[in-house]
Amino acid sequence: MPVNIITAGLIEGFDTLPFYRQIKAIAPYAAGVIAVKLWSRGAKNTWERNLNGKVYILTGATTQGMGTSVALEMAQKGAQLIILTRVVDEWSTEWVEDLRQRTGNELIYLEQCDLSDLYEVRKFATKWLDNSPPRRLDGVVVMSGNLQPAGLVPGWSHGTRKSSKDGLELQIATNFAGVFHLLNLLTPSFKAQPPDRDVRIIVTTCMLQAIGEVQVDDPLWEDVKYDRPLKFFGSSKLQLSLCMLELQRRILSSTTKDGRSGKNVTVVLAQPGVMRSTSLRQLISNGSVFVLVFIYSILLYPLLWLLTKSGYRGAQSILYALTTPELEEINWVDEQVKYVVNCSMAKFARKEFADKELQEKLYETTEAKILEVEKKMAVKRNLSKKNTKNDAKGRTKDAKGNRKD
User: Basic and acidic residues bias: where (predicted)?
Assistant: First the structure.
């Protein structure tokens, strides 16, 4: 049929075709929409890599968006996945079972580890490291994140400061302190991997790090006024990115006795782009159900569909960082952390990424501040346990006394 229509148009003239004028009027707009959508959805990863037998730790995999797309692809390729989740409950258990059925991969496990809780992070890392010989680990993929209502519209409240169990601002705790603590504690595991094993630490970042600030002397932002929530989010991403550059240097500079140089361990920062994600919904809705339903889901969604990526498309840059041979030791051009944007290598824009002294000091200060918080919380936990025991003893004595009466 299309051939007949084109033939008739060529012989008799396209003006004779039905609805030609309407099609001619609409065609430029349709072509423009298609062109914008092809541009906004971004590149697709074309590298293939066999992940059979490889072991990865994933965070943020249960989002039903980018994280789930990455986990699905890795599971289909045969990787063993240890997925960290804030709570292991009925929903997360069913989610894992569904992922196993869809991929035919039974080597997918859940581990409870709330990244906003430094104590839980240490418990998981200690359990992972407490193994002889060292457990196999081919990489860590960090996709978790927390974004609080930002109050972008004048007159809207951005809400009160939410705190983690350790008393840190929730975005700083989840996006920066928890991830930093996890990777810092797992560093011995990275170094212990055989030199022929390609280990990749992939950390997702966000373009909002452009509005972030670096608090070198107060990296956990304990003394900073909570006036601009979006600044806390951007700063958490920026500080984490800067610390990853120092982490790479520390891994490379610690040559072990058996000759391991650490060059088989690659740290990568991946920027997935603007997606129709939970964070974007939170940012636009400002935590309001009304705005989420009527403005985001109805009024803005056509525009967002046109200009933003799906979770699947956002996952492509992470999958690229995971599979590209450019990051293998034999193909290294230099020893710098790579920045992946739209399935290609990009350059850092901010001057802080060229300041090694700043990165080193930020890393050391963060490590020290986290240790201080951990010690303070350990004292509180011990006092709480003692009080609980004393209360239990008191109730036991009362019960015995009542029986004697």
Answer: 388-405
Contact 311, 60 (CB under 8 A): no
* CA 99/CA 104 separation, integer angstroms: 8
Helix ranges (H only) for 267-310 are 278-285, 289-290, 301-307
Residue 241, C-beta contacts closer than 8 angstroms, at least 6 positions apart: 203, 205, 209, 269, 353
DSSP 344-386: EEE---SGGGG-HHHHHHHHHHHHHHHHHHHHHHHHHHHHHHH
347 assigned to active site: no
55-273+309-367 belongs to which CATH class?
alpha beta
pLDDT digits (tens, 9 = 90+) for 320-333: 999 999 998 888 77
Question: How far is residue 326's CA from residue 110's CA, in Å, rounded to a whole number?
Answer: 31
Helix (H), strand (E) counts: the chain: 14, 8
Peptide bond connecting 325 to the previous residue in cis, omega within 30 degrees of 0: no
Domain ranges across the chain: 2-40, 55-273+309-367
* Ranges 42-56, 250-264, 310-324, 363-377: which has the least confidence: 250-264
Give Cα separations from 134 to 46, 56, 129, 202 (angstroms).
33, 14, 7, 21
Structure confidence at residue 256 (pLDDT) = 55
pLDDT of residue 304: 84
Bridging pattern class, strands 338-341 and 344-346: antiparallel
In angstroms, the CA 280 to CA 312 distance is: 15
Q: Among 237, 263, 309, 376, which one carries the catalytic annotation?
A: 237
Mean pLDDT of the chain: 87
Report residue 400's pLDDT band, with 50, 70 and 90 as the boundaries: low
Give the tokens for residue 215. Answer: 């608090």
Q: What percent of the chain has pLDDT over 70?
A: 86
Tell me which of 56-60, 150-154, 214-218, 269-273 is least confident: 150-154
